[in-house]
User: What shape does this take?
Amino acid sequence: MMFKFTKVEKINLCFKTFRIFVLMGFITTGMKQTDTTRIVFSILGALVLLFIIAPLMGMFLQTEVPGFIEATKDKEVISSIRLTLMTSALGTLFFAILSVPFSYLLARKDFPLKRLVLGIIDLPVVIPHTAAGIAVLGFISRGTLVGKAADSIGLSLVGHPIGIALAMAFVSIPFLINAARDGFESVPVRLEQAAMNLGASPLRVFFTISLPLAWRNIVSGMIMMFARGMSEFGAVVIVAYHPMVAPVLIYERFGAFGLDYARPVAVLFILVSLVFFVALRMLSKKSYVGTKKYQ
Amino acid sequence: MLELKNISKKFEDFHIRDINLQVSKGDYYVVLGKSGAGKTLLLEIMAGMIIPDEGTVWLDEQNITSQRIQDRQMGLVFQDHAIFPHFTVSGNIAYPLKLRGYKGSGIDNRVKELAETMHISHLLHRYPDTLSGGEVQRTVLARTLALNPRLLLLDEPLSSLDVQYKKDLQGLLRELNRTGQTIVHVTHDYGEALALANRVGVMHQGTIVQQDAIRKVFRNPKNKFIADFVGIKNFFNAVIESIPGKKHKLARINENTAFYVLNDEIQGEVILTLEARSVLISRGKLDSTALNNFKGTISEVIPTHRGLEIIVDIGVELAVIITHESFERLGLDKGMEVWAGFKASAINIQRV
Assistant: This one.
């Protein structure tokens, strides 16, 4: 897969790609008449798209096939990817059970200091992730209440997959809570009132009306949380260098052996993540039982 | 059966105050008022979605003011329907049945039964977004009836429907009421009240200004607002009869009295309304373009804010508004024989 390009060819390739993006911009914005604003916006959009895709494309193009195949056979790589997927998925599922009802509460009820609570939920997004890692480590290490509780059942959270899952969840949970809250907010209160009028208890209303109608947003939030947790490096590396999740392994390969050794692992991880991401997105669309958005 | 006592509720920009209202078992009670009068709020208070600041709500001699919504068994059909978009028509109707402990075939049978009553049997497997407004309305009504409601509360149930659906649904509602369902129906359309209600409460600026049997409210409006709003003094139940070879038809009110009416399409039972100011009174028979001319006796003379209202007995009681000047010029008085005339086109015909 290793392609060697001359400088001229590279420039040429870039130019061609850029032209394709500009064209895509026109197509997606529905170019019916020549409109300078639209052209300028399309060019800007194309630049942004290029900025995202070019480095990834470059990485894929520069990955050697033998190195890539080797990575797929490398037990350390495979187990780290498996660990990453598992910890992130379990963390997401566990915290979904806690946060979905909480999101409902946030969407429906006003209470004192609600704005503060909403701010706290967004906190993990704005603090540096290494700092988040330090915080989580401080929370679960042996001397703390949580650490002691875990210790008493023979569990050391530091360096344990559960610790990793907690670190991942810490930095990614806002995505789930916010998406679920948006979902519940889009369910008309009228429908819940109608269900109660028909004799349903609030809990029943939640499970039969609110949850199914907000389901799409919730699943979308879970996918985002899962994806964000999976890609987390900063917080995880502080809580657990070993066992190694994929982002840590990529970093380690890069530090110990250099770019050429880290790249195949990165590509493999991205591909696996993409497969999961796309599959979950498609599944979430299919599983939605409702019809068009209800006004 | 249902009684609201001194209900008040204040919001930032709106309030209802001192509402007293009684609905008896088997009533078809229409709350009539312009939009913004507080009619919907009243229904929400009955259903328990809103707790009043003051006053009490009684159902069958039981104070239910603070009873939970889900325990009241008062089926409210919302103006915006609130159909569950993620259930089929069948799923919507089954919803309250499941809550009431129906199982398997019990649910299926009851759903089918209700769907038949509402003429939506062919729609059971459809999702709401494929239904028309009238079909949604029927589904929601079937769903509410599945609750076996002690009281059926309807919020402007006919306002979003086209004429044909409106007529059908009116028929359905009347039938429901005949079979013993007590109904409270809010609307801004006095025609609906005429067609359906046995009792009516007129709501204005957040309070009930008059409530009584429908004829009493319409014939004797308590104040100018009600008079202007529902002041149709002359309304009659009638049956349309064709006259062979004639374009106009006959609307028969009773054995001896029938009006000529202009009407091409409406058949069967109707309600006729005639504005009191459209009737001409004369001492002798007038040779005019009016097809309807009746000899009668003045049975009452009532001064009103608009002049004098006289009631002429022509086999039915006909209310006529005339000025003091005309009254004096013609030398009219109670007990006197007069002629009353009005054009066939002055009569408004409404389907029942």
Observations:
- Chain B touches chain A through 28 residues (CB under 8 Å).
- Residues 163-178 of chain B form the longest helix (16 residues).
